[in-house]
Amino acid sequence: MPANGAPTKITQGSKTKGGIGESTLRPDGTLKVTGEFAYSSDMWHEDMLWGQILRSTVAHAEIVSIDTSEALAMPGVYAVMTYDDLPTDVKNYGLEIQDTPVLAHGKVRHHGEPVAIVAADHPETARRAAAKIKVEYRELPVITDEASALAPDAILIHENRDDHHIGHVPHPNIVHRQPIIRGNADEAAKKADVVVKGEYTFGMQDQAFLGPESGLAVPDEDGGVHLYIATQWLHSDLRQIAPVLGLPESKVRMTLSGVGGAFGGREDLSMQIHACLLALRTGKPVKIVYNRFESFFGHVHRHPAKLFYEHGATKDGKLTHVKCRIVLDGGAYASASPAVVGNASSLSIGPYVVDDVDIEAIALYTNNPPCGAMRGFGAVQACFAYEAQMDKVARQLGMDPVRFRQLNAMEQGTIMPTGQPVDSPAPVAELLRRVKAMPMPPERQWESSEGADVRQLPGGLSNTTHGEGVVRGVGYAVGIKNVGFSEGFDDYSTAKVRMEVINGEPVATVHTAMAEVGQGGVTVHAQIARTELGVAQVTIHPADTQVGSAGSTSASRQTYVTGGAVKNSCELVREKVLEIGRRKFGSYHPAWATAELLLEGGKVVTDGGEVLADLVDVLDGESVEVEAEWRHRPTEAFDLRTGQGNGHVQYSFAAHRAVVEVDTELGLVKVIELACAQDVGKALNPLSVIGQIQGGTTQGLGVAVMEEIVVDPKTAKVKNPSFTDYLIPTILDTPTIPVDVLELADDHAPYGLRGIGEAPTLSSTPAVLAAIRNATGLELNRTPVRPEHLTGTA
Amino acid sequence: MRVNFTVNGRPQEADDVWEGESLLYVLRERLGLPGSKNACEQGECGSCTVRLDGVPVCSCLVAAGQVEGREVVTVEGLADYAKQRAEHGGCASGACGTSLQDAQQWAAKGQDSQTGEGTELSPIQQAFIDAGAVQCGFCTPGLLVAADEMLERNPNPTDADIREALSGNLCRCTGYEKIMDAVRLAAARQSEGV
Amino acid sequence: MDFLRPASWEEALAAKAAHPTAVPIAGGTDVMVEINFDHRRPEYLLDLNRIGDLYEWEVGEDSVRLGASVPYTRIMENLRAELPGLALASHTVASPQIRNRGGVGGNLGTASPAGDAHPALLASGAEVEVESAERGTRLIPIDEFYKGVKRNALQPDELIRAVHVKKADGPQQFSKVGTRNAMVIAVCAFGLALHPETRTVRTGIGSAAPTPVRAKAAEEFLNAALEEGGFWDNGKIITPSVAKQFADLCSAACNPIDDVRGTASYRRHAVGVMARRTLTWTWESYRGARRTTEGAA
């Protein structure tokens, strides 16, 4: 497809009802609306105990002593465990760097770090017992930002680091550093007619999934344990859990329970090991359910960031160069920080053509809450800053901000700052055109015959304005997100597919370890199986570790990679079915030997549509099963000095237009509409695609105007770990979100699809900020923007 | 302490209840009704919404002892509750919830084995499935109870009415658009049915 | 923990007398949060749900006697004419589910400066009816009720039975700032009531001082300015300078703190804006009512 030509819509229909491209309904929908769907917090077992975690009340301290005797003596308490009770030499875990203690050892490094665990017969007993554990701390100075982390006398958050990043970081309090140098930014800057510099701050966002961390560990008779858990990646959990328990992976059985949202926050372990330890210690099933307060301490957050940018452009609107420095606060433990650094650096200039760049991204170790994966993963922070810069440059040039973006928009064939060519459609200019072309929402919708409807005004039900001070603003943004795991990671998925005849009907069973966290992967797997195997009935087997890894439900990768694995395994099953058919019926019709055969509508058919046999007759009594791994094309690590390398698999693009109304006197914002245009490659399930885009958009809105975990810079303690003070958008804060879906196939991906879950979270935030700037004329270099920032009262 | 009350039309007794337990805990952990969800336990998310003597409340903020002798409807009882309402004059002709509803349920039946096929649903439950308003589903039970009650009071809500009525129910997955669609759909079907 | 379930008001008073540390629980919207989050483990919970009297209201000659447990939803729906300020404030309380359970008695009992009912009660004028088994009933003027951050004038053996709120004799408004458009705790709030019968204006400020407060200097200034300019009679538009000075004095009545919900400086600013706007709205409404009356006469 010509990059600037008219985009083509690709519709790959499937002839079996309920196949890909249709908006089939969720297989778990009925269970979810009747309350019968079993989430991890709903697990219950006869005789089970309740686990409770005692967490540090200070952010940085040496542990002088822990006294558990009073807690242990309480009636109803079955076990109290500290670091000293860990069964093996493996006492740490971590996604990439095993730097996170299962229970604090000698030191705590952030507020809310687990220090001891308790099992008791009632949650209240467990809470009371935990409260009776006496921990004596000797407090240490806290490191909370770059200056304190890199100060000459700074305490090292982790002494004796031996991870694979320590060799190239300039300071042990830096987890990872990734520079990207391409061309010569200093030279190119000389050609610039306009140079714009900016400093930006991105606040700490929480995933705030609605189902807090929870699970049930049941001891097995063979000395192992069975964990029912809500996670994003069963096998990654397993790899981290088993060594700490001193068990082979085969004795740690994991079954995915219902997951109440994830958004990156379940990529790391939370209560998994604790529940297993207590179950093995007591010989009884142990359930742990965090409450909302604990949930804020129980998972990593989105990295807060400081971003320093310089953009140059010629007066005809072409970017000359970009320099940037992104400082991510990784908090006390590494989690996914290194990969977040890789994303932030490699995607730091956005979906634009810039030949000369000088980029650096680092993640710090501090005593702030640990940060890691959240939807958008490093690309979100950068997008907020580069899109603000793009508006500033456009303003300086006197150009329309959308026009300026389109002039510099990347397209298929553009070379990334990493040197990697973009080798599939990159319709950045087109997405901007589409989102701009959408009809504008009418003005003053709040006016009615009965006066102002406050529900449609800034402040909403709080009745702060009847129209006074209200100014409308419009803003645009576009973003680029990588899909799948990058930088040379062996990112594969496994799918086991079985086909057999049950009650006279051909049935396919799809078994993967994919974590369904709400995204609708189970719906899509069934659709793929119907398309590939021509059956109406598909059973989705519960996800567990009895099948190979499906990788993580993150990085917008599941439909691509596990979907790809399901497709691949279905194809292998199809070949076997056809072999059986040839064996049984080959002699009856010459087409068995020659034609391209398909499975459609429960039959074997030729590509000309001629029916050769019923699947029921082919399979009669036999079943076919295949378990196979599937990989997307390999990627490379980024060079540690230059950042060059084909690090990414695929890119995903979305653009937003935000229309806001701001009460400029009170600094309150009502987002009126957040229109989105996104290229999805191929919408396997259009209804789910729209749902993902609208959900991602709303999370971007949240961090634009309200969401922030506030950490006291003096103590590194979290000040708002509750839904009273960590606010996420209600239905009255969320506007209509019209979505324009573009389907430009990526030839490298199954069905041409593109991972979609994260891109809309990127551009939503800067679009809202741009609209607020447009309404107020203020600079606004931080997000979330709060009323005090809009009223000069910060 | 012991607490006796009615849940979804059935008398229930919970024993050995700790005095600080919430109605939510009793429903979930003592009565085997985990449909109401524990997402914040501070009245800031609506996931645990149930009807207490007909009124939508956050069950996490009702002390177990306070429900002695009272009637509770949870998401597990919503379909029955809606059916009874339809049969007892909740809609004039008594037709809603029967033929049209049945037809819609048939049309919406999934093709998979995990659908809980054959389960009778209330119109709002069916609409949530059909409109794609369910993703992770953790907010869904509370939203259903709240939305059902709103449609009972206000069968023809404006968008602003829907948003106001559901402003106590957080959803983190959907961006609420499909939830709006679902409530509009349920309202439309309800009015067609009358 | 013991759970006390009095069946009548007398039983409740007796229980409170016997166990002065008992924590009354009605809507549960404050108490249960504290229990769920392990912030509080009272020896006794005193359930007031079974005392029907607390859920009733009577509209009298001059005031409404509002039972302590009348849910905010009922106030919004039934007392909009008599208590417009409180009805507006009720509509801003948390969420529909909370408004179905919580009542003014809870706001008064908790006495948080962020309670939404307080500014409306201060502006309209109210008395809190409290009672103990030993000393019987007393009425505490609302201005004397708030004693400190989350402290009120109740004695340990007393329970709040009702609040007597003056019926509106003129327009009232309530406005609250939060960083979300629904289900939000006040960053700060403002209530204003015009009392044409006495030719006075009363105010209430929430969440901008250790307790809910009236902006008395602002009220006095405005009362004088309105009197002087003959505004009550001539129904003229209040001049911007008067409105501004009133707003500034309301800001000055604040004694706010910086916290996670907002800065002190913002709170002062926002109270001023809300004061000016609510004054404008109420005065416009007063002028409109006057015109209608004159037109009829």
UniProtKB/TrEMBL annotation, chain A:
It holds the Pfam family MoCoBD_1. Gene3D superfamilies: Aldehyde oxidase/xanthine dehydrogenase, a/b hammerhead, Aldehyde oxidase/xanthine dehydrogenase, molybdopterin binding domain. It comes from the Bacteria. SUPFAM superfamilies: CO dehydrogenase molybdoprotein N-domain-like, Molybdenum cofactor-binding domain. Residues 1-26 are annotated as: Disordered. Residues 34-141 form the Aldehyde oxidase/xanthine dehydrogenase a/b hammerhead domain. One of its GO terms (molecular function) is iron ion binding. This is Xanthine dehydrogenase subunit D. It comes from Streptomyces curacoi.
Automatic annotation (TrEMBL), chain B:
The keyword Iron applies. SUPFAM superfamilies: 2Fe-2S ferredoxin-like, CO dehydrogenase ISP C-domain like. GO terms for molecular function: 2 iron, 2 sulfur cluster binding; metal ion binding; oxidoreductase activity. Keywords: 2Fe-2S, Iron, Iron-sulfur, Metal-binding, Oxidoreductase. This is Oxidoreductase. The keyword Electron transport does not apply. It comes from Streptomyces curacoi. Residues 1-78 form the 2Fe-2S ferredoxin-type domain. InterPro entries: 2Fe-2S-bd (IPR002888), 2Fe-2S-bd_dom_sf (IPR036884), 2Fe-2S_ferredoxin-like_sf (IPR036010), 2Fe-2S_ferredoxin-type (IPR001041), 2Fe2S_fd_BS (IPR006058), Beta-grasp_dom_sf (IPR012675), Diverse_Oxidoreductases (IPR051452). It holds the Pfam family Fer2_2. PROSITE patterns: 2FE2S_FER_1, 2FE2S_FER_2.
Automatic annotation (TrEMBL), chain C:
Keywords: FAD, Flavoprotein, Oxidoreductase. Residues 1-170 form the FAD-binding PCMH-type domain. GO terms for molecular function: FAD binding; oxidoreductase activity. InterPro entries: CO_DH_flav_C (IPR005107), CO_DH_flav_C_dom_sf (IPR036683), Diverse_Substr_Oxidored (IPR051312), FAD-bd_PCMH (IPR016166), FAD-bd_PCMH-like_sf (IPR036318), FAD-bd_PCMH_sub1 (IPR016167), FAD-bd_PCMH_sub2 (IPR016169), Mopterin_DH_FAD-bd (IPR002346). This is Carbon monoxide dehydrogenase. Signal peptide: none annotated. Pfam families: CO_deh_flav_C (PF03450), FAD_binding_5 (PF00941). It comes from Streptomyces curacoi.
